[in-house]
Amino acid sequence: MTTPATTTFTRMDQSTPDQWTVIGAEVRDHQPRVAERVLAMLRSLRDMVDGFAVDQLTHCLQTATRAERDGADDQLVVACLCHDVGKAVSVPNHPRIAAEILRPYVRPEVTEVIRTHQDFQGRHYYAYFDRDPHQRDRYRSEPWFSLAEQFADGWDQVSFDPDYPTFDLAHFEARVREVFAHPHGM
User: Fold this and answer.
1) How far apart, in whole angstroms, are the C-alpha atoms of residue 167 and residue 61?
2) Which DSSP letter does residue 142 get?
3) How many CB atoms lie within 10 A of CB 59?
4) How far is CA 83 from CA 64, 114, 163, in A?
5) Is 176 helix (H, G, I), strand (E, B) or coil?
6) Is the pLDDT confidence value at 52 over 70?
7) What residues does each domain of the chain span?
8) What is the pTM of this model?
C-alpha cells in the first residue's frame, strides 16, 4: 500500500498550483469512498423506526424498488434509495441534507425532487401537525413538479409495508457506486 501524497502548506493563501494538483489527484483517487459512506449511512437507517411500520432503511429500499419497477433511470433510483439518508443526521431537515449529498451526482430536477419531497409528502400528513397540507402547490410551476408528484405519491408515501416484496441493499450497491463515482465537473 502506498502512502497518500500530501502537501505542506498550512494556509490556503500560501498554496501553489502543484500542491493543488496533488490534492485534486487524491480527491479523484478516493472518490469511491463517497459511495461507501453513503451506503454506511443507509445501513444506519436500519436502526431508525420512529413509529413507522418499517425501519427507515426498508422504507428507502421500498421506494427505490418501486421506482426501479416503474422504469426509473439509475440516477432517479439511487435518489429514491437515498431520499431519507439525511435522517441519519437530522430528521427535520433531512430532505435538504439528502439533496446536497446527491446534488453533484444527479440531474438538477432529481435534486429538486429530493429537496422538496417532504412538502410533497405533506399532502398526506401535514394537517395532523397543524401545517398546510398544500405546500406542494408552491412548486406547481416548476418543470420537475410531475416527477416530484410521482416520487411522493407513487413511490415514497406507499413504502411503509412490511409485506412488500423489496429488493435488498445489495441489489442497489453497484448502481450506488456508479452514480457516486462521477461528480459533475470532475
Assistant:
1) 7
2) S
3) 23
4) 9, 6, 21
5) helix
6) yes
7) 31-179
8) 0.91
| 8 vs 79, more confident | 79
Name the 3-class secondary structure at 183: coil
| Rg of the chain, C-alpha, whole Å | 19
Q: What is the rounded average pLDDT of the residues 34-52?
A: 96
pLDDT of residue 4: 61
pLDDT in tens, 122-169: 999 999 999 999 999 999 999 999 999 999 999 999 999 999 999 999
Distance CA 163, CA 178 (A): 29
Residue at 111: amino acid letter: T
Superfamily of domain 31-179: Hypothetical protein af1432 (1.10.3210.10)
C-alpha cell at 24: 485534486
Which residues, other chains included, contact 75 with Cβ-Cβ below 8 Å and sequence gap of 6+? 105, 106, 107, 110, 179
Phi-psi category of 76—alpha, beta or left, where left has phi over 0 and alpha has psi -120 to 50?
Answer: alpha
The SS3 of residue 177 is helix
Residue 90 has pLDDT above 80, yes or no: yes
